[in-house]
Amino acid sequence: MVRNYCISELRKIKTQQERISDYQYLNIQDKEEVAEDIKEESLQIEKLEHALNELNPFQKKCIELFYYKNMSYTEIVAITGYSANEVKSYIQNGKRNLKTLLTSSK
Predict the structure, then answer these.
(1) What is the CA 62 to chain-centroid distance, rounded?
(2) Contact of 86 with 35, CB cutoff 8 Å
(3) Is residue 49 part of a domain?
(4) Which distant-in-sequence residues (6+ apart) come within 8 Å of 53 by Cβ?
(5) Which of 12, 58, 73, 106 has its CA 20 to 30 A from that of 65?
């Protein structure tokens, strides 16, 4: 009976050690995946900034105000002096052009 108890305890210890080892391995993998994700995200940001610079200045200004500064169409109209239809058009065309630039560079 004592022998079986000792074997049972050894199995528990071995199982715990395996779990700890698995956890440490997964933790290392998670860190590597996070680092890869950060690298990928920074590359995408660089591509987006490059594509933004290729837009015409009206589209670039409207896109930056709308998406980066979270301004409404009316606020953009007030700041830029463009008409509401121009702002909508610049944003819509700018988005389309950005998409084209980003997908063509892949």
Answers:
(1) 22
(2) no
(3) no
(4) 60
(5) 106
What pLDDT is attached to residue 12?
Answer: 80
pLDDT score of 58: 95
Query: pTM to 2 decimals?
Result: 0.64
Together in a domain, 103 and 71? yes
Q: How many domains does the chain divide into? A: 2
The answer to whether residue 79 is domain-embedded is yes
DSSP string, 11-52: HHHHHHHHHHHHHHHHHHHHHHHHHHHHHHHHHHHHHHHHHH
> In this structure, which amino acid lies at residue 68?
Y
Six-digit token string for 70 = 């979270």
The residue among 104, 103, 102 whose CA lies nearest residue 45 is 102
- Calculate the CA 74 to chain-centre distance: 29
Please tell me whether residues 35 and 59 are part of one structural domain: no
Six token digits for residue 38: 């950060």
